[in-house]
Amino acid sequence: MHRDKWTIHFIEEDCKTSVVNRYFAFATLHNLRDFVIRCNAGPAELDDFDHSVKAWGRGSTHLTLTDEQYVSLKKCPSGSHAATSTYVIPTTE
Fold it and tell me: Which domain of life is it from (predicted)?
């Protein structure tokens, strides 16, 4: 499957509130998967991630960031996109 980029955004536990007002882009699926692993994905989350990407070319995975990761994410500068600590992979065509 070919994509120009893979994008993600983060939302709070309520699945409504944005953590930061930006999307994060990854050039390859491999880079995105590595990022998911760095966000503390366990075997079940990686299986969900891999399944949804292979089946539909998009998906979402719920992850729990460490306190340090969450604070670091909150310090990221916001972009011009509305963003929605869930891990979401919108379709990019």
Answer: Bacteria
3-state percent breakdown (helix, strand, coil) of the chain, nearest 5: 35, 20, 45
Task: Indicate the domain borders of the chain.
Answer: 6-89
* 83/72: higher pLDDT: 72
Q: Which helix (H) or strand (E) holds 8?
A: strand 6-8
Question: What H or E segment, with its residue span, contains residue 61?
Answer: strand 59-62
| Closest-CA residue to 19 (of 90, 59, 92, 72) | 72
- Count other C-beta atoms under 10 Å from residue 35's C-beta: 15
